[in-house]
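Section 5: illustrative case.
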């Protein structure tokens, strides 16, 4: 499972760098500072790649009300890249994007497209996540076992156990009695 995560993250980073390399430079200002979002007009719920140029630091944060979460940007040589998702509730139109890298603030916009016809035809879009989901994994089974040991068996389990023990004891007694009768 760990190797799969590393492979996925590596592939995601490679895809982000490929998108960054292929993104037009028209978004950059004359001083090299600029924010671009790919795809250029994402629909609500779409994963996007945010790119900023002209940052002296190696990390930055891109913030927009259109995003589910702030995009953590990383890179080198003044170009930083990161990923986030557009909220499923984001209204169509231009939304400001603010990137803070070091002491510099670079502003841009993301143009959110209208929701698709499948989403708009009376179907409500799923809610945007606001935090990581506690999906368990790893220690979940241990917690369940620990909880079972703390609670112990209930009355129903105790009665069932006593009935089964009584049936087994009766079977042993009857079998022993039959053997003694056959031996006589």
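Designed sequence:
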């Amino acid at each position: 499972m760990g190797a799969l995560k590393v492979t996925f993250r590596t592939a995601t980073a490679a895809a982000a760098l490929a998108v960054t390399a292929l993104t037009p430079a028209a978004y950059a200002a004359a001083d090299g500072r600029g924010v671009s979002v790919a795809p250029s007009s994402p629909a609500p719920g779409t994963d996007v790649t945010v790119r900023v140029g002209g940052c002296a630091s190696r990390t930055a944060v891109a913030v927009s009300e259109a995003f589910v979460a702030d995009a953590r940007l990383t890179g080198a040589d003044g170009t930083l890249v990161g990923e986030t998702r557009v909220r499923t509730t984001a209204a169509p139109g231009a939304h400001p994007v603010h990137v803070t890298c070091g002491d510099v603030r670079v502003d841009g916009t993301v143009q959110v497209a209208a929701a698709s016809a499948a989403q708009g035809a009376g179907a409500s879009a799923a809610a945007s996540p606001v935090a990581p989901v506690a999906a368990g994994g790893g220690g979940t089974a241990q917690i369940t076992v620990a909880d079972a040991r703390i609670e112990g068996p209930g009355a129903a389990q105790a009665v069932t156990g006593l009935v089964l023990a009584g049936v087994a004891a009766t079977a042993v007694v009857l079998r022993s009695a039959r053997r003694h009768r056959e031996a006589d």
